[in-house]
Amino acid sequence: MKTLTQALLTATLTLAAMGCGAQEGTPETSIAQSALNEPQPGDVLDMGSVVVSSSPNDSMLFADFQKDAPWDCSTEDIGPCELSRCPTAYGVGTPTNAGKITITGGLSALEMIPNESGTYDMQFLDRALFTPGTRVHIRAEGNPQGAPRFHVGLWTPPAFDLLAPTFPASPEEPPMSVARSAAIDVQWGGAALSYHRQGRIRTVIQTFPMDPSEDTYTLVCKFKPHQGAGQIPAEALSRLPAGPGIFTVDGATEISRNRRGWYLQTWAALAFTMMEPGATGGMIELE
């Protein structure tokens, strides 16, 4: 199920990255000296994101930069969660780039170079990109006609063993039913219990509207790894519309900053798995 996992990984990480606020953690002064100004509905932004997602055999590099992109999303904090509501097609401005991007500190040096159209090809790799709980550096050379030069260091999220919830272990199983009226308990173990860095255990629930005129909802909740457990509040789930969606649990570290007028987000994430024993994500039906 690698192709499906990659497609869902792309969709989930893209919307989660472009729709969520800053991660708790030590700010990197090398990416910005000023305080973060969160986008507001109606803003027109220059914005970009870089995602480094790692798993033993299904990793991904993703980068996207847009000039003059309308920000049409509304966000609301509910307990440990942030609920974003966005038009199904949003944040589309003029594509550009930040020059060559290098990622160091992982298991091997990586780079992303703009293609002939001036954007970045998404890269899928069949190997792990970093060791959980280590520090990686993302550096962009900058583009005088596009995004500025920047550098950010992130502590990669910890490895963890998901104890609850339990996701379907094969494609033959039906989507998991999720009641919007009840909280969801999330539990994990493993190395995460001794982790005290920037990374968080993250849950993402994202809706799949059947009508392109309907909004997409993304509910992202973050928990400190050493706590071993967290809860997605019923209040947050009740704001989601009924229907199909995807629910994933992963580890993620994010730093978001403003840099020379650009809103920039950088992510290091542990890719989720689907439709296999020990899966950390799956298709759902919100009831």
Could you explain how this protein is built, in words?
This protein is mainly β and 287 residues long. The protein has one domain (2-286). It is built from two helices and 19 strands. It has helices at residues 2-19, 234-237; strands spanning 44-54, 59-70, 74-78, 81-87, 94-96, 101-104, 110-112, 123-125, 135-140, 150-155, 161-164, 176-178, 184-189, 200-207, 215-223, 229-232, 243-259, 262-270, 281-286. The two termini are 26 Å apart.
Topology:
Elements: H1 2-19, E1 44-54, E2 59-70, E3 74-78, E4 81-87, E5 94-96, E6 101-104, E7 110-112, E8 123-125, E9 135-140, E10 150-155, E11 161-164, E12 176-178, E13 184-189, E14 200-207, E15 215-223, E16 229-232, H2 234-237, E17 243-259, E18 262-270, E19 281-286
Parallel strand pairs: 1-18, 12-19
Antiparallel strand pairs: 1-2, 2-5, 2-8, 3-4, 4-15, 6-7, 6-9, 9-10, 11-13, 13-16, 14-15, 14-17, 17-18, 17-19
Uncertain spans, ≥5 residues at pLDDT below 50? 1-35
Helix/strand structural class: mainly beta
Mean pLDDT: 86
Radius of gyration: 18 Å
The total of helices stands at 2
Per DSSP, what share of the residues sits in E-state strands of 2 or more residues? Answer: 35-45%
The biggest sheet amounts to: 12 strands, mixed
Overall tally of domains: 1
Summarize the structure.
The chain has about 290 residues and is mostly beta strands.
